[in-house]
Every structure is written in structure tokens, then in C-alpha cells.
Amino acid sequence: MSSAKWAGKNSGRGPAPGVNSRRRRELSDDQVAEIKDAFSIFDTNGSGRIEAREFKMVLKALGFDPSTDEMYSIMSAVDKEGHGTVSFDDYFKIVKAKILDRDPMEEIAKAFKLFADVNTGTISLKDLRRVADELGEVISDEELAEMIKEADRDNDGVVSEAEFMKIMRKSNLF
């Protein structure tokens, strides 16, 4: 069982508004597709533009929680005409930059917390079963046990945060 079970180029014009440019790598094809799909859900009339409030909802759906000040700053930069809308091109540049700006270690730590038992601070077979069930994933206990075994370097039957970090870094998902 692979560790994957656990889990664009800079234009040269600088980062999108409200985005720190300290990290750069490329988006995967899946990420590009997810960004496009999220936009198209809200661009119901096919105009190539979405409203500011919809843009904020898309950002939340993609895992971001922009403050009112951040949204104001972004909209001031991209909506020069004051229509309260964002074009697909501006949307894509902003979302791409925000995704590329994420700290992979911080994202892995957040993911660990979603899986881990709050009392033990580890991931057990029971925890994986809970997450799989919550996500509606059909995965056998044998597959889940294999995932634990693959990540459990000290053979204590659970996955610690350090073990989780190691397997996730190795997976190239982050």
C-alpha cells in the first residue's frame, strides 16, 4: 500500500494581492481542475466572473478563511471598475498563489489533528475507521491496518505525529 493512501508558474508580476511569495512550486493537474471546478459552480451564467461574496465562499471551500480586511484588499486590487466581481483570470491567480503559499508542514499538522484521537494524540485503526466512515470511503479494516503498519515506525500499533509527518513528506502530497 502506498503512502499516497494517507492522504503553475509565477508570471513574474509578483504575488497576487494579500499573498506572501516565500514559497513557490507548481500546482498539480488535480489542483488546477479543483480550482476551475470551484469557480464554475458559482459562475452559473457563464460570464467568467463571480461576485465578491461568492469568491469568499469559494476560498472557504478551498480551505482558506479570508478576513474581511483581506477580502477588501483583494477586491480593491482586482475590481478596478467597482462592480463587486472577480474575473476567472484574477480568481485563478489569487487562488494559485494562496495554494502555493501554504506551509506544507503546517498543512500536515492540520491533517494529523483531523485524524488523531484528542486524548492520545495518536492515530489508531479506530481513528482511521472513523475518518473513512465520515468521508463515506469504503475501505476494509485490513487496508486501514496496512496504512497504520506502513506509517508505524516504532511498532506500537499507532501513528504518532512524527511518524505521520514523515510518511506524508515521503508521499509528495504536500
From TrEMBL:
Keywords annotated in UniProt: Calcium, Cytoplasm, Cytoskeleton, Repeat
Localization, UniProt: Cytoplasm, Cytoskeleton
GO molecular function term, any single one: calcium ion binding
Residue ranges of the region described as Disordered: 1-28
GO cellular component, one term: myosin II complex
Start and end residues of each EF-hand domain: 30-65, 66-101, 139-174
Superkingdom, natural source: Eukaryota
UniProt xrefs under SMART domains: EFh
Main localization (coarse): cytoplasm
Entry annotated with the keyword Calcium: yes
PANTHER family for this protein: EF-HAND SUPERFAMILY PROTEIN (PTHR23048:SF59), MYOSIN LIGHT CHAIN 1, 3 (PTHR23048)
Entry similarity comment: Belongs to the centrin family.
Name this polypeptide is given: Centrin
Organism: Babesia ovis
